[in-house]
Amino acid sequence: MLANLLIGLREGLEAALVVGILIAYLIKIGRRDVVRRIWLGVGLAIALALAIGALLTFGASDLSFEAQETIGGSLSILATGFVTWMIFWMLKTSRSLSGHLRAGVDKHLTGAGWGLVAVAFLAVGREGIETALFIWAAVQATGATTFPLLGAALGILLAIVLGYLIYRGIVSINLSKFFTYTGLFLIVVAAGVLAYGVHDLQEAGVLPGLNSLAFDVSEAVPPASWYGTLLKGTINFSPATTWLQAIVWALYAVPVLVIFISRIRRQSGTTPQTGIPQTAVAERAR
Fold first, then answer.
1. How many CA atoms lie within 13 A of 74 on its CB side?
2. Where are the domains of the chain?
């Protein structure tokens, strides 16, 4: 639940800040008449994310066990790729995010401004697709449904509230530290999802080594215990891990963490990585 709450919070806050920048910029340049186009694009992006989530959940229900495991494992690996790209994309391009969004608005303001629907749809849709895919993979990994979805919903709700408070200038948070710390944690979570995807492919017979275990600590960490459930729900820890799972986990987590931390250190002492100062959105709205 905690991992999904964090996913919902991080992705939701990114989307909320993007929407806030778009709306604040339109208000600043006196184009309140086209703000509805932004909300239409946001609505379409949310609908797409929900449709993808429903398709992933119900689309493979009639397939064989091997087919379901193959699809599940492949999508878990894809989800890991998406979330990794998202973490580094935010780190690299966030400084110019505000300018990029404003340029997109200026380009599509001609006429009735219907092009703004596409601007908002693409900006928010990326976050929505990543969220739907990664949460689905996390749900599959934990084997539970209610708590992961509840955690994601709470995270998104909290992100909406925080985004609004930041937009109004009521609350200020250190966005640079927020995205740095959540990025570090999400890399560990993504490594667990990747390992789970490998296990799915092993169960489907696509990859070898299903019965070759690197370790089995099921007696010390029973899967049904509260701490076993906690580890499973946060970092997708499996008490019985195959050699291939362990190797893939290490080959992903170690270099990605090293690269991420090294880039953070290179950017230390510079302007916040988010490129969205805490009061910038509120100032643009005035």
1. 11
2. 2-285
pTM for this prediction: 0.77
The Cα 110–Cα 104 span in angstroms is 12
Token readout for 242 is 């195959």
Q: Which two tokens stand for residue 12?
A: 């939701």
CA distance 196 to 260: 22
The pLDDT of residue 129: 85
Rg (CA), the chain: 20
Length of the chain: 286
Q: Using CA atoms, how far apart are residues 228 and 158, in angstroms rounded to an integer?
A: 27
Distance from C-alpha of 280 to C-alpha of 286, rounded to nearest angstrom: 10
Does residue 225 sit in helix, strand or coil? coil
Query: Residue ranges of the chain with pLDDT lower than 70?
Result: 1-2, 60-61, 94-95, 111-112, 141-145, 233, 269-286
Candidates 242, 232, 146, 228; CA nearest to 200 is: 242
Contacts of 197 (CB under 8 A, 6+ apart): 72, 73, 74, 75, 76, 77, 79, 80, 137
Using alpha carbons, select from 190, 191, 18 the residue that is nearest to residue 105. 18
